[in-house]
Amino acid sequence: MRDPFNPVPVTGADESLARPRVSPHPYATLLAEREAARAGATAPRRDTLLYLNAVSKSFDGFKAINGLSLVLAKGEMRAIIGPNGAGKTTMMDIITGKTRPDAGEIFFDGETDLTRHDEAEIAAMGIGRKFQKPTVFENHSVEDNLRLALAGRRGVFATLLHRESAADRARLGEILELTRLGPKRASAAADLSHGQKQWLEIGMLLAQDPQLLLVDEPVAGMTDAETEETARLLRDIARTRSVVVVEHDMHFVRELGVKVTCLHEGAVLAEGPLDAVSADPKVVEVYLGR
Ligand SMILES: Nc1ncnc2c1ncn2[C@@H]1O[C@H](COP(=O)(O)OP(=O)(O)OP(=O)(O)O)[C@@H](O)[C@H]1O
């Protein structure tokens, strides 16, 4: 027979089911509410690859980054523009753990708090950074540069003992094709053009299979043809991973055809399609007022 005040049947097998229902303790209710609030607060960052909220960083009292908030979706490519000193490099330094922020939140892939990790850990998590100047091994062939990068995670001894697997060979072929360096695979890196060296370095980063690639002024010093090819290359890369590109060259940014964030004095001044951002009077003023 069922207890009319307790619809749970008394079976005897599980005594917990037989206990009468009581209202939760007010403290339990408070905890549940807090948990729900926390889940609500973290919901927006779950769908994002990179989440910066109210990030600040001062150098000797000067606010290089000042309440910067930025959200990058999984699989998104974003162009970051802004006049000299806007905080673009400092932002990249903070994301990659080279510089620690004074305040603010930075989450990677929804849940990982980047402010609790150092540079090496952040790189190992899948955030690759391409600096402006290419740093390839000049005396090695294109292929060997990529092989070293592919083997990078194994460590030096393991690399020396390692025999190239079919998977590595396939990946090498993919990266050569993606970076437009297939015909140059046997050439020494020293013999590549400036643009090709940049592509090789991008290929070396791809060998680490990053989820997020940060690229600092990739087309500085490139020919117009190389600049256009780099835009295509980055668009190809962004099919499988997220990319943040810092760039001054507006022709190149237009070629990328992605959402643009304009930084100024360490915060976001404007965000949206390039045409809208470049027509924004605030943006025009900071660029013309330089
Ligand atoms: N380590 C540091 N010590 C002191 N000041 C710094 C340091 N790093 C950056 N700054 C200052 O912070 C501000 C932002 O610099 P940052 O290099 O991030 O700008 P940027 O947008 O990358 O500029 P650019 O386009 O010229 O590379 C600048 O005023 C710079 O002088």
Automatic annotation (TrEMBL):
<dbReference type="Pfam" id="PF12399">
    <property type="entry name" value="BCA_ABC_TP_C"/>
</dbReference>
<feature type="region of interest" description="Disordered">
    <location>
        <begin position="1"/>
        <end position="21"/>
    </location>
</feature>
<keyword id="KW-0813">Transport</keyword>
<keyword id="KW-0547">Nucleotide-binding</keyword>
<protein>
    <submittedName>
        <fullName>ABC transporter ATP-binding protein</fullName>
    </submittedName>
</protein>
<dbReference type="InterPro" id="IPR032823">
    <property type="entry name" value="BCA_ABC_TP_C"/>
</dbReference>
<dbReference type="InterPro" id="IPR003593">
    <property type="entry name" value="AAA+_ATPase"/>
</dbReference>
<dbReference type="GO" id="GO:0005886">
    <property type="term" value="C:plasma membrane"/>
</dbReference>
<dbReference type="GO" id="GO:0005524">
    <property type="term" value="F:ATP binding"/>
</dbReference>
<keyword id="KW-0067">ATP-binding</keyword>
<dbReference type="InterPro" id="IPR003439">
    <property type="entry name" value="ABC_transporter-like_ATP-bd"/>
</dbReference>
<feature type="domain" description="ABC transporter">
    <location>
        <begin position="50"/>
        <end position="290"/>
    </location>
</feature>
<dbReference type="InterPro" id="IPR051120">
    <property type="entry name" value="ABC_AA/LPS_Transport"/>
</dbReference>
<dbReference type="Pfam" id="PF00005">
    <property type="entry name" value="ABC_tran"/>
</dbReference>
<dbReference type="GO" id="GO:0016887">
    <property type="term" value="F:ATP hydrolysis activity"/>
</dbReference>
<dbReference type="InterPro" id="IPR017781">
    <property type="entry name" value="ABC_transptr_urea_ATP-bd_UrtD"/>
</dbReference>
<dbReference type="InterPro" id="IPR027417">
    <property type="entry name" value="P-loop_NTPase"/>
</dbReference>
